[in-house]
Amino acid sequence: MTDHLDVVIVGAGISGICAAYHMQKESPNKSYAILEGRADMGGTWTLFTYPGIRSDSDMYTLGFPWRPWRDPKAIADAPDIMNYLRETVEETGIDKKIRYNSKVVAASWSSDKGQWAITVRNSETGEDKEMTCNFLFMCSGYYKYEEGFTPEFPGRDDFKGEVIHPQHWPENLDYTGKKVVVIGSGATAVTLVPAMTDKAAKVTMLQRTPSYVVSRPNKGEAAEKLAKFMPLSWRDQVMRWTAIIMGIVTFNMLRKNPERGKKILTGMVREELGPELTKKHFTPDYNPWDQRICAVPDADMFDAIREGTAEVVTDHIDRFVENGILLKSGDLLEADIIITATGLNLQLFGGMDVEVDGKAVDFSETLAYKGMMFSDVPNFANTMGYTNASWTLKADLTDQYVCRLINHMDKHGYSQCVPRVDDDVEIENFLDFTSGYVQRAVAFLPKQGDRKPWKVNQNYIKDLMFFKFSRLDDGVMKFSNEVKAAPEQGADKKAA
Q1: The model's pTM
Q2: Do 10 and 135 share a domain, yes or no?
Q3: What residue numbers bound the domain in which 430 lies?
């Protein structure tokens, strides 16, 4: 007999845990399970094991609003985050709902049956089994777990040392007394550089172009002070909403007045490193938030640069050579270890194949409904966090909306829900971001529209109002019990 559940959640990271909590709380009559393709939970926080790995968002908003983060650290490292997640699933009983080594490789919707047939592969044995569910909720993240992005470097085989991508960090790597070059200037690079100075002889961050880097306090001193004269539950809300509002205000200010924003961000670095290093290595040629801004806790990377245990080099790679990297300028960067912190490979739904009534779904031809469902794909939702704020903020709103939607269907006797596109919607790219990992994925990402509910907001307060109080039966989301095939996908005629 085929295993059947009301709801299947795919992925046991922050998104999947949050989805399971709301499913238990708001739709308690629904049977569900979390299918996790790996042998452990935690997603990003157990996949990456490189030195210093930590959050690049404050934990007051990256933590769950229904189980507030109360550690003194506002920016936490992976072991602390994993302790928090493990405690959360144990306290809520979600741990009993996780099925490990269960990778969903295909999903096929049948309008005749009103359900999904999914193929689940055992990650240890390679054996496939079939399951069915009424609603499929993807919480599998946005990048490929199997491999990160590494460009083709000329002379790669000439280099005699180790070349490592942070997504595949070797266990027990000894870099004591070694010369380390970290290629990249994003969040991973600015985390690795100060973290490796404890043992390495010298750590160099090699970047083609500068990124915006800002220092953030690591200890929540304000939280400690507030806890002295108000209940913890009040303090938790104050810290969370302060972080949310400050994030939105700062983002809007930087986007609306980019020249002023540039001066503020580079001015903060100038106070740490002086004008010469700031101009050369920390003054990007793009506007703030065209790419994600990197945060360093308590100025740790700036401290390492001042102390001489780390340096930044802005140049282009000519080729790898036997003992390091030859730069276009003609300089040689000597290295024993080269770390390619060159980014991620974006991937939808863990690489899962999706069909609707026997036709393969090309998600680049779909429009994202409220940033989480897709035109002409029934009973299917996906969690995608914000690019300018904590992932969990959007995940929590998405989870509550999905539960509202499922409960609405139950109340009115519907078995199917699907967003349908109006002909006059103008099509835009899903993400307005110039980062390399986004640009490499534009061709296969869904699109967004120029108006609600097809517009993807990057604003928590707007989404809070829209998700919680907008009508479910809005004329775009179509509900039915009818047995009929879905129409041809409509967004392909207007793809950007």
Answers
A1: 0.91
A2: yes
A3: 3-145+346-494
